[in-house]
Amino acid sequence: MTHTIDETALEAFLGKVVNETGAAYNTVLTAVGDELGLYTALAGSGPLSSKELATRTDTAERYIREWCNAQAASGFLRYDPEAATYELPREQAHVLADETSPVHLAGLFQAAAAVFAMAPRITEAFRTGHGVGWHEHRHGLFEGTERFFRSGYRAHLVSEWIPALDGVEAKLHAGIRVADVGCGYGASTILLATAYPKSEFIGYDYHEASIEAARRRAADAGVAERVRFEVAAATDYPGTYDVVAFFDCLHDMGDPVAAARHVRKSLAPDGTWMLFEPAANDRVEDNLNPVGRLYYAVSTMVCTPASLAQDGRMALGAQAGPARLAEILQVAGFSRVREAARTPFNIVLEARP
Questions:
Q1: 92-136 pLDDT, tens digit each
Q2: Is residue 309 included in any domain, yes or no?
Q3: Which of 71, 82, 140, 169 lies 20 to 30 Å from 332 when distance is taken between CA atoms?
Q4: pTM to 2 decimal places
Q5: Are residues 78 and 16 in the same domain?
């Protein structure tokens, strides 16, 4: 049987492969530029030669020149061939250089570069079916993830997500107890503590290094007196709370149902569970888009291995979708579950007993 090749389709796919490979390498180069402060130096400076950029950042010119060319080829920098200078356009600076920007995404590159280094471990996990715990990854994943989500939290949490929940904003202003479970470096906890000074916030995470980092960040933000961070898992953190929040972490857990049941147990009678998860639809075919592509990849490399490293091994995945999440919450005893808000990167579920 003779099989013919569609040459047009073949050429198109070869072009896609070249583009994908270049993007993968540029991901690492972008993480390098972020760590060295190259984007910060370029932001608002106008055109610079590679020598000028190297001088400003105390780096080696020959490396900087090659990095700039790679960035220009990727469309991250603008190159002037007559002057042999490079410029970071304002739009790119908004994404790569401004930590206060609502679309600052440099953390994505930092996290990706750290995960790439774990490829041998992940490959072996494919063969064995064993998990790879969150704590086993490199520091760049922890910090990069915090930086990525912090931008979205800063843009939406207080202004949109909290007001979308039934009665929660008024309670926070009046003063209540809040548990932020799976808090990581504490970005969400600190934002809430800053916005609602009459309420008490406790962040919990099983990862001791993240809790230590969160404590330092709370001190730097001036909210250490009304927020504290403790090492505890989602299934055994202590206390009773008016509000419990899970930010982008339930799908990483080995037993989300057990975690949900513990939330139910820890809530005050009229309490609310705020569940923030990666944006997804319920069907695979409806997630085959750029955001779904990113989240499926991260889920394969980080989220699913993390769940498989824990008791329960449910491996929910980062694209579970609201229907599957609501099912877990209802099994755990939450009778009222609704989608309160959505952004391109997140969905917000409100759950009540």
A1: 999 999 999 999 999 999 999 999 999 999 999 999 999 999 999
A2: yes
A3: 169
A4: 0.93
A5: yes
